[in-house]
């Protein structure tokens, strides 16, 4: 079964085999070495020096990392401007509300890009903003939000970025230092091709709150994790098998040529998918230039419901993903993360073409 949903991903055999490594206590030196290997490699994905940056690991989903980032770094004396143009941008606002963080939300329709002039106006009207928080790749639609342009706006006003990079870290360009990214939350089981259950935040060390400042969360306090990791420990039981898999997945990424090579592979796959679906009359929601290379959204074939398309594709060995909320009745989503080959992509295109042909001519003889 080939997973074309936006995580979890189809695993390579070597990552799957890593799950079978020996049982290990998280208080043993072997786990410390494993944890350190992962932290070093995560910083290495984008060439970040460990004296200024930390990759803070925790057991949980990508949302756990995002919540840890928001709740730990936003100060009581400051405020955050949250940019919404999809489900996950709105989730940032939900986290801010739950933790009582002072915030302002700048909402956009889900099929719209971020209004940069509106961002400028919001930042100029409120000088309390310490951060702008946004989703890099908004998988509600597949849109890649314009961090480079936003970073320029923020830098001119002394404002840092908090980035939800859950669906972009490891496959999209992230210039941490030039874009003044204070922290980026991500997960093992998307572009890095690990398994669910391990998440992390790549954070500027100077952005972490000082010792002695009261934490907002027990389990999601990044400072606590960072201090423990620096001392060769961990505050809570970690997902040991998930760590094994992530360490192997990072080795695989390095051997393939890093994030830029993975980006090229994703782009090639999605380009072929867009062309193949266009040939049978299936239109993308957004132009390719507005999209991430990780996932694109498409209009459902005329006269076909999502469940019909999903179930027939599953019979061919492929799992796609529905649109969200109001988009559920009109869109489906395709991601090319994971151990997916060019042959898999061609089989998928052929399968969806066959399904569309049979839908148009239900009484025709099988091809």
Give a short synopsis of this structure.
39% of the residues lie in helices and 17% in strands. By secondary structure, it is α/β, with parallel strands linked by helices. The radius of gyration is 21 Å and the shape is globular.
Structural write-up:
With 367 residues, the protein is of the alpha/beta class. It folds into two domains: 12-256, 3-Layer(aba) Sandwich (Aspartate Aminotransferase, domain 2); 258-360, Aspartate Aminotransferase, domain 1, CATH 3.90.1150.10. It has helices spanning 13-18, 29-45, 62-73, 87-98, 116-125, 147-155, 222-230, 240-256, 258-279, 306-315, 342-360, and strands spanning 2-3, 53-59, 79-84, 103-107, 129-135, 137-138, 143-144, 160-164, 181-187, 198-204, 295-299, 318-319, 321-322, 331-335. It has a seven-stranded mixed β-sheet with strand order 2-10-9-8-5-3-4, with helices on both faces. It has a three-stranded antiparallel β-sheet with strand order 11-14-13, covered by helices on one side. It has a two-stranded parallel ribbon with strand order 1-12. α9 runs parallel beside α11 (342-360). The radius of gyration is 21 Å and the shape is globular.
Secondary-structure map:
Blueprint: E1 2-3, H1 13-18, H2 29-45, E2 53-59, H3 62-73, E3 79-84, H4 87-98, E4 103-107, H5 116-125, E5 129-135, E6 137-138, E7 143-144, H6 147-155, E8 160-164, E9 181-187, E10 198-204, H7 222-230, H8 240-256, H9 258-279, E11 295-299, H10 306-315, E12 318-319, E13 321-322, E14 331-335, H11 342-360
Parallel strand pairs: 1-12, 3-4, 3-5, 5-8, 8-9
Antiparallel strand pairs: 2-10, 6-7, 9-10, 11-14, 13-14
Helix pairs in contact: 2-8, 5-6, 8-9, 9-11
């Amino acid at each position: 079964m080939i997973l074309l949903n936006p995580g979890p991903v189809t695993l390579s055999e070597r990552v799957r085999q890593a799950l079978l490594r020996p049982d290990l206590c998280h208080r043993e030196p072997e786990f410390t070495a494993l944890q350190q290997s992962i932290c070093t490699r995560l910083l290495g994905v984008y060439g970040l020096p460990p004296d200024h940056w930390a990759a803070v690991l925790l057991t949980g989903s990508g949302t756990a990392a995002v919540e840890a980032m928001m709740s730990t770094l936003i100060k009581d004396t400051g405020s955050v401007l949250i940019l919404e143009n999809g489900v996950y941008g709105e989730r940032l606002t939900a986290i801010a509300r739950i933790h009582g963080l002072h915030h302002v939300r700048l909402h956009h329709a889900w099929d719209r890009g971020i209004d940069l002039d509106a961002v400028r106006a919001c930042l100029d009207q409120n000088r309390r903003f310490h951060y702008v928080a946004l989703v890099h790749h908004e998988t509600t639609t597949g849109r890649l939000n314009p961090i480079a342009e936003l970073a320029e706006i923020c830098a001119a006003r002394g404002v840092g970025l908090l980035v939800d990079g859950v669906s972009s870290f490891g496959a999209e360009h992230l210039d941490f230092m030039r874009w003044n990214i204070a922290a980026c939350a991500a997960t093992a089981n998307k572009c890095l091709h690990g398994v669910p259950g391990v998440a992390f935040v790549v954070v500027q060390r100077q952005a972490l709150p000082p010792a002695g400042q009261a934490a907002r969360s027990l389990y999601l306090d990044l400072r606590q994790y960072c201090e423990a990791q620096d001392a060769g420990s961990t505050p809570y039981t970690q997902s040991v098998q998930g760590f094994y898999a992530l360490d192997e997945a990072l080795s695989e990424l390095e051997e393939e040529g890093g994030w830029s090579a993975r980006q090229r592979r994703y782009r090639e796959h999605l380009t072929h998918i867009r062309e193949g679906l266009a040939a049978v009359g299936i239109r993308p929601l957004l132009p390719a230039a507005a999209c991430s290379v990780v996932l694109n959204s498409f209009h459902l074939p005329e006269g076909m419901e999502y469940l019909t398309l999903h179930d027939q594709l599953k019979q061919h060995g492929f799992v796609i993903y529905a649109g969200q909320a109001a988009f559920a009745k009109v869109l489906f989503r395709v991601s090319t993360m994971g151990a997916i080959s060019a042959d898999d992509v061609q089989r998928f295109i052929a399968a969806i073409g066959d399904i569309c042909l049979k839908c148009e001519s239900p009484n025709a003889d099988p091809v």
